[in-house]
Amino acid sequence: MGAMTDMEKDFTEIMARDQALVEDYLAQAFASQTRHANLQEAMEYSLLSGGKRIRPVLTLETCRLCGGDAEAALPFACAVEMIHTYSLIHDDLPAMDDDDLRRGLSTNHVVYGEATAILAGDALLTAAFEQLTRANLPAERIVEAVQCLSQAAGSAGMVGGQALDMAGEGRALEREELELLQSLKTGALISAAAELGCIAAGGSREQRNQVRSYAQNLGRAFQIRDDMLDVTSSEEELGKPVGSDQVNEKSTFVTALGLAGCATLVEQLTRRGVDALSAFENPGFHIWLAESLATRTK
């Protein structure tokens, strides 16, 4: 039991170290830019508002897992976080989920107005691809990263999932529809985060397939746990409104499976994700991350 506690402490320290690298990089991302009205301020308001930084940490640690230099992958990692942040800004807009709270703060459009929030999201989306080009890595890896992230973020991935989410409001979705929606809206970017780490490291096609399988299962478990917390947690714990899925008449895994069924599925998906990494020599951090996310309370 003591050894496990020490191991968990080590992984927590790795997480904190990676989060600090990401925070420092993001804090400087737009510092030297000419300021246009309050655009960069709005971008940084959401980009630097905290959060778990799961996606960029996953990029860095998957790069290490595949034998690469994690710090060389920082531009890839932070590009993913910029995409994620833009999606949150736009998701919170009145035309989408119409939320007033995110990470314990007023949402971007509440502070800066809808027009500036839209532009801030647009600018972060564009900046993400500029960040990919800043990586000190071979050109062919950067090209592969651009292809990976653009596919995950666009109509074949996250944006397509958001479209399905909006179209599904007010009607009951079948489990298969929910799984497709989640795999695009949430899972695609989590998968891309892991794959970008493998790409940065120059990993093999087999390694990329393995980390993709891990991340896809992680993403599914993450979203189901999120649906559970929307029912069981509080606004203070989550830092965002709870019960919003019900208010917006959205089908979730909880409405489809119930809380007990969701808990069982999260456990199964987490195990599948862990098993996908069995060929790697030292996947300890990834195992710890998957298990931690499966039982998170916020």
Plain-language structure description:
- The protein is mostly helical and 298 residues long.
- The chain has 14 helices and two strands.
- It has a two-stranded antiparallel sheet with strand order 1-2.
- Strand 1 and strand 2 (105-106) form a beta hairpin.
- The relative contact order is 0.12.
- The mean pLDDT is 92.
- The longest helix is centred in the C-terminal third of the chain and has 28 residues, at 205-232.
Please specify the SSE layout and strand pairing.
Blueprint: H1 2-28, H2 39-47, H3 54-65, H4 74-91, E1 101-102, E2 105-106, H5 108-112, H6 114-133, H7 139-153, H8 158-167, H9 175-201, H10 205-232, H11 235-238, H12 244-247, H13 253-275, H14 284-294
Antiparallel strand pairs: 1-2
Helix pairs in contact: 1-3, 1-4, 2-6, 3-4, 3-9, 4-6, 4-9, 7-9, 8-9, 9-10, 10-13, 13-14
Runs with pLDDT <50, length 5+?
A: none
Major beta sheet summary: 2 strands, antiparallel
Tally of extended strands?
2
Average pLDDT over all residues: 92
N-to-C span: 25 Å
Which percent bin holds the helix content?
over 70%
Strand neighbour order, sheet with most strands:
1-2
Beta content comes to under 5%
Shape: globular
**Strand-pairing-aware structural class:** mainly alpha
Rg, Cα atoms, Å? 18 Å
Helix segment tally: 14
Run of helices and strands: HHHHEEHHHHHHHHHH
Keywords:
mainly alpha, 14 helices, 71% helix, two-stranded antiparallel sheet, 298 residues, globular
Provide a short characterization of the protein structure.
71% of the residues lie in helices and 1% in strands. The chain has 298 residues and is an all-alpha fold.
